[in-house]
Design goal:
The protein is α/β, with parallel strands linked by helices. It is about 40% helix and about 20% strand. It has helices at about 40-60, 65-80, 80-90, 95-115, 155-165, 180-190, 205-215, 230-240, 265-275, 295-310, 330-345, 380-385, 400-405, 420-430, 465-470; strands spanning about 5-10, 10-15, 20-25, 30-35, 125, 130-140, 145, 170-175, 200, 220-225, 245-250, 255-260, 285-290, 350, 370-375, 390-395, 410, 415-420, 435-440, 455, 460, 470-480. Strand 8, helix 6 and strand 9 form a beta-alpha-beta unit. The longest helix is centred in the N-terminal third of the chain and has 21 residues, at about 95-115. It is globular, with a radius of gyration of 23 Å.
Length: about 475
Amino acid sequence: MEIQGMIIGGKFVTESGVGQYIDVVNPATEEVIARVPAASEHQVDEAVRIAWKAFEKWSRLSPFERARFLHKAASLVEERAEEIGRVLTAEEGKPLKEAISEVKGSAEVLRYFAETSKRVFGEIIPLDKPYLQSIVIWQPIGVVAAITPWNYPVQLLAWKVAAALAAGCTVVAKPPSETPLSPLKFLACFLDAGVPEGVVNGVTGAGSVVGRSLILHPLVRKVSFTGSTEAGKRVMEYCASGVKRVSLELGGQSPLIVCADADLEKAVKGGVRRSFRNMGQVCNSINRIYVEKAIYEIFVEKFVTETKKLRIGNGLLDPDVDLGPMVSLEALEKVKEHIEDAIQKGARVLCGGKKPEGEQYAKGYFFEPTVVTDVNHDMLIMREETFGPAVGIMPFEDLNDAIVWSNSTRYGLAAYVYTSSLEKARVICLGLECGNIGLNNVDVATIYAPYTGWKESGFGTDIGPEGILSYLETKHIKVEFSE
C-alpha cells in the first residue's frame, strides 16, 4: 500500500509520530487506494517551528522575488494538472474533467496573487502640523494555519496558500483526511519550484488532534479555515485563547429565486448545474428553489427533465459522466435522512431519491440527483445544509415572501436570482442576507472578487484584492520632522 508522505521542512515524512495511518478510500469503488500518516503533536510542533524559522527570510523577500516563486509553482501545477486531477478524482469522486479544471484553476490563483502582492500599497496621511506625518504600512502576519475541506481539496488550499505566501507569510496546511493525496501533490509543486525549506508544510491527521494542535500552537498567528459551521465555531473558540486572526468560510443553505419574467431555459439549466454539481457537495450549492407561481408547474417539469439527463458514474473510467459518487457513506446517509424527513412531512419525490440501478453501481457511494416538491420550512432539506444531491422546490406569489424565506436560515453564504426586471433585481439583491449573489448566473466564486459569508456562514475572505490583506498586519508610524 502506497504511503503518501507529509511535508515538513521541505522533506516528505512517511512516518507517523503516533504509529497510526489514515486510509484513503476511492468512493466509486470503496477500495483503499493509499494511506497517509497521522501526525503527532510533536510533528505538528516541528512543522510550525520550521515555518516560523523560515518566516524570517521569506517575509524579507520583496514581493517581486516571492512572485517569481509563485509563478514557477503555478507552471508546475499546470504541467501536472492531469496527474493531480486523476488522484483528486480517485479520492473524492468528481468527474476527471472537473478535477483537472480545478487543478488548472489553482495554478491561475497562484498567478493572480503573485501579481496582487506587487500592488499592496501603504498610505501617507497629512496631519494638523506641517512637520507631522502618519505613514501606514502592511507587514505579513507570520505562520498561517490553512485548514481545508475535502470537496475542493486543491482549489480551496490554493486560495489560502497563494495569498499567504504572496503576503510574505509561511504556511502549515492540514489537508482533509478524506482527500489528502491531491493537496499534498499540489504542495509538492512549491518544493520543486525552489521555495525555501519550511515556507510550505503539510501535516495530515484528524482535525480533533492535528487541527487543534495546529490552531492552538503559540507560533501560529493566523488561521484560515474552510469547513462546516459547527467545526468553524470550535476553531473560533481555539483562536480566542491566543487572540489569533481568523477567517472562516463555513456552511451554506443557498436559495434560488426564479421570477416569472426570467429566462426560463437559462434558469433551469443554471439551477440544475448549481444544485447537483459535485453531487451537491459544495458550500454554495442550491438547496432550495422559490419559483413564482405563474411559471411554477412548467419550471418544475423542465427542471426534472433536465435533472434526469445527468449521467452518473466512475469519473476515472468514463470521461463523459456529469456526476460521480458522494465522498463517503456518512455523507450519503445525511442526504437520505433529509429526504426521508421531507417525505414524512408530506413532500413528494419527483425524481431520484435512491441508489442508481445497475451492476456498475453495486460498489460506491452513488446516489441519484433528487428533486422534491410540496416542501415547507419545517423540513430539514429547506433549513439545514444537505451537502448532497437533493433540492426542494416551492412556489411563491409575493416577492417579499421569497426574500423572507430565503433569509430564514442561520446561513448567509450565497443566493441566486433569475429575473429580467432591473427593479426586481435591485429589490432582491439588496434584501438578501448573504455575502455572494449570482444574478442570472450560478457562478459566484471568482478569484478577482471577495468571497465571504454572512451570519453563520463565516467572515473574512481568501480571494479578491481583499484576500491578501487578511494575511497582513497594519502598522502606523507617526513621524515628526524638523520644524
